[in-house]
Write a structure and sequence with these properties.
233 residues; alpha/beta; five-stranded parallel sheet; 10 helices; 11 strands; 19% strand
Length: 233
């Protein structure tokens, strides 16, 4: 059959196709078709031979993102796919052609410079899947005038990601002044009573500012991915 309707029906069927079972892993071969985003490999805790096995089975033309990847992982992937690049601070390896940036911007706001690695994971993730990102770093509540000096960029963003450790109050402040979704990312940065991110996590979960959602501690990838999904709508 011919026609646009039939093509759409065929694509729906392709979305249901199974994974590639290679024993120790089950590779989602149609992630990009189904979700509109590339396959993502979480490297932390994985054996190098498993990362290598996954990469060797993924189609050579596929877009792939590897998160929580150290330099050793990048060196391994680069030997398999020469079109791989490494974002060291974000700890992300990206393989394939980057998606063209489109749509409104996402603002990634960090409380302090110690929060930048998590903020970069969020920013790079969003950029790699096609979003424009404005970085606004080191504007925490200890000097809140720094935040308001950047209010135009923050107010003009379609989604705002707020990354903060210590007590995590920055997300509530931002959530109280913007009319866009705020994604709060607690980090494990802080002294002992921050309990490796538990204190900012609870602060963000208890935010009285409407429109604030919260991802897990240090989960910059999750925040960047979610922001990019919202941005596509």
């Amino acid at each position: 059959k011919n026609g646009k309707t039939d093509i759409n029906e065929a694509l729906k069927e392709f979305k249901k196709f199974p994974f590639d079972d290679i024993g120790f892993a089950k590779i989602d071969t149609h992630r990009n078709l189904r979700k509109g985003f590339p396959e993502v490999i979480f490297c932390q805790g994985k054996k190098m031979k498993h990362i290598e096995g996954i990469y060797r089975r993924i189609d050579k033309t596929s877009i792939v993102m590897a998160t929580r990847a150290c330099k050793e992982v990048f060196d391994l992937i680069k030997k398999i796919r020469n079109d791989s690049v490494y974002f060291e601070e974000a700890r992300i390896v990206f393989t394939g052609k980057k998606l063209k940036k489109a749509g409104p911007s996402i603002a990634v706001v960090s409380a302090g410079t110690a929060d930048i690695p998590v903020a970069e994971e969020a920013a790079v993730t969003a950029e790699l899947v096609g979003a424009k990102v404005d970085r606004i770093y080191d504007v925490g509540v200890a000097g809140v005038h720094r935040l308001f000096a950047n209010k135009d960029k923050i107010m003009n963003a379609n989604v705002v990601i707020v990354v903060a450790g210590m007590e995590g109050a920055l997300a509530s402040i931002v959530g109280g002044v913007v009319d866009r979704p705020v994604i709060a990312v607690p980090t494990s940065v802080g002294y002992g009573a921050s309990f490796s991110g538990i204190a900012p996590l609870l602060t963000m979960l208890n935010s009285c500012a409407p429109g604030v959602s919260v991802v897990n501690i240090d989960n910059g990838f999750g925040a960047g991915y979610l922001a990019a999904m919202i941005n596509k709508k």
